[in-house]
Structure formats: structure tokens, C-alpha cells
Amino acid sequence: MSTLPKNLPPAPRTTARKRPRLSPPWRKLLLTIHVTVSVGLLGTDAAVVALVTSGWLGHARPVTVYPAAHLLGEYLLLPLALLALVTGLALGLLTPWGLLRYWWVLISLAVNTVGTALAVFVLLPGLDTAATAALAGHAVASPSSLVRDSGAACCVLIATVAISYYKPFGRIRRRS
To answer: Alpha carbon of 146 to those of 32, 55, 81, 121, 159: distances in Å?
Structure first.
């Protein structure tokens, strides 16, 4: 038997904390910036792949190819990667997609974060070393690793495009 009175008012509804949302024009602008930056990042990475492949195969002079690839990496690839990551985070936080509501958003965020970290800590130092060696007239230590690293970055970017287009795996299920 219950000891509660029968005429109690209904329990107040707990409202979930509302996240800030962008109005449609601002959301479209942010999405346009994100897509433009991401396409620019993919194009820049493809240019780096072309340059380091050309140097590896001996089609161009290393003294021109590797410094050019390093400049592209330093002045375009890195800023575009960081900007793509920041605009992607902003889209996740400020739109109904959220960061932790859909698997494709979470996977894309994780892949972009790891890809940006690898670009900063692996690809760019490798390009710097290759450019320094080429300018000094020395042989580049491992030109095939530059092709592998920049090619892998290109594949990762294409994978994130596919993930964002197909939006696989649905919603992330919340545990009760």
C-alpha cells in the first residue's frame, strides 16, 4: 500500500539542457566554409602527393620538388587541416547532428583529429627534413615514406568524405 497522497501534482518534467543552435543561414554558411576548406585540404594533399611522387620517381629535381611540397604542407595543408577540424567541431556542437549522437559524426571527428595529428607530427616533419636535405644537395633519406604518408592522408580524407556522404551506422544508442 502506498502512503502517498492521491492528489499530488504531476512531477515537474526535467528538461534537457538546450544546446545553442545556429539559425539556418548561419548553419549553411558554416557548412559551406567547412566543405570548401575540406575540399581545399584534399586538393592540397593531392598536390603534395604529386610532388613527392615526382621526386621519388626522379621526374623532377629534388631541390625544387621537396621544398615546394614542404611549403604547401606548412602554409596550406596545416592551416586547412586545423580549420576543417575546427569548423567540423563547430558544426557538431551548433547543429542538431551533435558530436555524440550519430556514429558517422563521431567517426569523422576521430579520423580528422588523428589525421591532423599525423600531419603535424609525421608528414610535416618528413617534408621539412626532405626539403632541408634537397636544398643542401643531399639525397632524401626515404622518399617512398613521404609518398606513403601523403598518400595515406589523401585516402583518409576521401574516407571522411564517404563517411559524411553515406552517414553509416545510424544513431549512437544511449545506455539507460
So the answer is: 31, 10, 18, 13, 20
